[in-house]
Amino acid sequence: MIKAIDSQRCHSFSDRWHSITVFLAAFLALAALTACDIERRKSDAELGLNPQQISGRKLYDNYCDRCHRPYSTKGEKGPGLKGIFQHPYLPMSGLPANDERVSEIIRYGRHEMPGYSQTLDAQGMQDLLAYLHTL
Ligand code: HEC
């Protein structure tokens, strides 16, 4: 009788360890999978930004970051903006990738994207464009 209780207790004890181990393994697998996505944010200095680009980055963080990833081409609500000025045409609209077109999109918006003509003054627009050129 005592033996039976003992072995049962022992059994449930090892069961518990088993589920903890399974849980840990699942957690570690998930952490490993998402690790590539959580990249540490680089400082302005690490990116080699000048003062104008730094103020452009602040504007970007405030107004654009929630929809556009700056260092990835992967889309969020809008397309990722990595290398936005490195190709002759913009990835989504197919418009020429130049200051004129891009500032128009920022000023007036496009489809789901709001316009920022009320938010950014001429200096802000220049700073933002300067930062976008570093992506
Ligand atoms: C609410 C989400 C949202 C915000 C905030 C936003 N955008 Fe957009 N953006 C979009 C979407 C969606 C598109 C795609 C529009 C389309 O259908 O052509 C887009 C398009 C663009 C494009 C053109 C891409 C292409 O390939 O044609 C640029 C450049 C751009 N956004 C820059 C910015 C900048 C800079 C800011 C910050 C001032 C910003 N966006 C803020 C959602 C957003």
Folded structure, characterized:
The chain has 135 residues and is mainly α. The chain folds into two domains: 1-38; 44-132, Cytochrome c-like domain (Cytochrome Bc1 Complex, Chain D, domain 2), CATH 1.10.760.10. Helices cover 53% and strands 0% of the residues. The protein contains five helices and no strands. Helix 3 crosses helix 5 (122-132). The longest helix is centred in the N-terminal third of the chain and has 34 residues, at 2-35. The mean pLDDT is 86.
Q: Mind telling me which CATH architecture of the largest domain this is?
A: Orthogonal Bundle
**Number of discrete helical segments:** 5
Q: DSSP strand (E) fraction?
A: under 5%
**Ligand types:** heme C
Query: What do we call the CATH topology of the largest domain?
Result: Cytochrome Bc1 Complex, Chain D, domain 2
Coarse morphology: elongated
How far the N terminus sits from the C terminus, by CA atoms, comes to 73 Å
- Using the coordinates above, name the CATH class of the largest domain: Mainly Alpha
Q: Radius of gyration in whole Å, from Cα?
A: 25 Å
Total DSSP E strands: 0
In this structure, how is the largest beta sheet organized?
none
Specify the structural class.
mainly alpha
Average pLDDT taken over every residue = 86
Helix content: 40-55%
How many separate domains? 2
Order of helices and strands: HHHHH
CATH superfamily of the largest domain: Cytochrome c-like domain
**Poorly predicted parts:** none
